[in-house]
Amino acid sequence: MSFNRRNFIRSASILATLSIAEMETLNAKEQIKTSGKVIAQDDEAYWQNVRLLFPLTKDWTYLNNGTFGPSPYPVIEATRAGMMDADQAGNYGSYDATPGKIAQFVGANADEIALTHNVTDGINIACWGVPLKKGDEVILTTHEHVGNAYPWMNRQKLHGIVIKKYTPAATAAETLNRIAELINKKTRVIATPHIPCTAGQILPVKEICQLAKDKGLFSLIDGAHGPGMLPLNLHDIGCDTYATCSHKWMLGPKGTGFLYVRKEFQDTLQTFGMGGGSESGKWDLMTDPVTPGNYAQSAHRYFGGTQANGLYTGVNAAIDFIETIGIANIHNRIKYLGKYTQDKLLEFGDKVELITPTEERSRCAVNGFRIKNIEFTKFYDICVENKIRIRSVQENGLNSLRVSTHIYNNKEEIDKLIDLIKKV
Questions:
Q1: Cβ 197 vs Cβ 220: under 8 Å
Q2: Under a CB-based contact definition with an 8 Å cutoff, are residues 222 and 193 in contact?
Q3: Domain ranges of the chain
Q4: How far apart (Å, rounded) are the C-alpha atoms in residues 286 and 19?
Q5: Which among 237, 179, 191, 183 has a CA at the least distance from the CA of 215?
Q6: C-alpha dihedral, 313 to 315 to 316 to 317, nearest 10°
Q7: Residue 385 — pLDDT band, cuts 50, 70, 90?
Q8: CA dist list (Å): 411 to 28, 47, 92, 328, 341
Q9: In angstroms, how far is the first alpha carbon of the chain from the final one?
Q10: Rounded CA gap, 30 and 95, in Å?
Q11: Taking 70 as the threshold, does the pLDDT of residue 160 lie above it?
């Protein structure tokens, strides 16, 4: 009894030293637990509690999650704890459980997940490892991020492959038709984003991967904006590879990511960057040549060496944070905010051009637009002056603007942007 009393007194003393903001944060951490229940997309009291768990400054309106998502306090705390665990006790390899946790989150197997630093890492592994020869054709979009364009452009320069391009259409069906029209006997790869960074439309990747399979092609997906925004099942999508990161919609530590490589595809996708862990466990520098049997019999063959204990502890915590709320609840909330943004932009009529499709299956959390008679970089500068964070889109001459909202946002913040558009 006296021990419990001491603990109570100690806890009360700690609570007495907390600020009101810290007390609100502790309370919010408890209030967001859903226990699997459905949360209404417009339950502003609930989503305000979610917002309290992010260290976002009140001075800025942050509408640029598509670049990176700010981590909530539980992720930041876990990352620090993971670093301290290594630095205080010398513990090594605490990231070993992360591939399995990621796999469960995205609908894959643990032996199909390679840890990377970002999406670009994963894309390069896939790009350079897929077997291609001079004249082989690869299909990309006209909306590529540099991370899914330059690796293929570099391979074009060095190996003589040919890049073919399509522009995503306003509907998923027409997008699929445009891809199909580019396929010929020289086509070997469809390397497409799940959600292009430019306008944020959701491409029909399951149908694209089925098309690739039917034609005997490789399907390599840039999945930068998938995990954390959409409920995912990579086995159901049917891709050969899916490269993504943890620092956007998953809200994890910056500098973390992963690459899914379908188990049956691993002996086709050649690995080049190797180190400790990417071998089978038995090797001899003096006698053994490297053979397929020497590679790790998993996606661990695609990454090796020391990993950051703290960062991947943070990735684990990010998945826990998402699952505390529920990925379905998250998806519904951000799709609700995305639709609200679209509706507000459409109210401007021909004064604002909405680039992102309005088709139900093709839209979610990101909207691209242009303002008539206002240069896009000029409006971006105006936003910065008014402390609103969005993104200018210069990729491939699109010269547009992008707003991307997550669970920490609300309609009032979107209205600030809309009011600024009205002023200009």
A1: no
A2: yes
A3: 98-322
A4: 63
A5: 183
A6: 90
A7: very high
A8: 20, 11, 44, 20, 8
A9: 67
A10: 27
A11: yes
Q: What are phi and psi of 133, to 5 degrees?
A: -130, 170
Helix (H) or strand (E) holding 186: none
Q: Which fold has domain 98-322?
A: Aspartate Aminotransferase; domain 2 (3.40.640)
User: How many CB atoms neighbour CB 306 within 10 A?
Assistant: 12
Q: Which two tokens stand for residue 318?
A: 């990010």
Q: What is the mean pLDDT of residues 80-85?
A: 93
Higher pLDDT, 9 or 280: 280
- Cα angle, residue 393 at apex, residues 198 and 404 outer, rounded to 5°: 60
Q: Is the dihedral of CA 42, 327, 119, 174 positive or negative?
A: negative
User: Measuring CA to CA, how many Å separate 185 from each of 135, 182, 189, 215?
Assistant: 11, 10, 11, 9
Rounded to the nearest 5 percent, the helix, strand and coil shares of the chain are: 45, 15, 40
Q: How confident is the model at residue 14 (pLDDT cuts 50, 70, 90)?
A: very low
- Torsion, CA 165, CA 167, CA 168, CA 170, rounded to 10: -160
Of 280 and 291, the structure prediction assigns the larger pLDDT to 280
- For every residue of 248-265, DSSP letters joined together read STT---TT-EEEEE-GGG
The DSSP secondary-structure symbol of 270 reads: -
Place of tokens 């007194």: 9
Q: Which residues pair with 227 in a beta bridge?
A: 230
Residue found by looking up tokens 């539980």 in the block: 74
| Structure-block tokens of residue 147 | 């991370």
Q: Are 225 and 249 in contact (CB under 8 A)?
A: yes
Q: Give the DSSP letter string of 382-411.
A: HHHHTTEE-EEE-GGG--EEEEE--TT--H
> For 42-67, how does the pLDDT look when each residue is reduced to its tens digit (9 = 90+)?
999 999 999 999 999 999 999 999 99
C-alpha distances (whole Å) from 305 to each of 71, 93, 279, 308, 422 are: 26, 10, 11, 10, 53
Task: Give CA separation, 58 vs 51, 254, 366, 385, in Å.
Answer: 11, 22, 22, 15
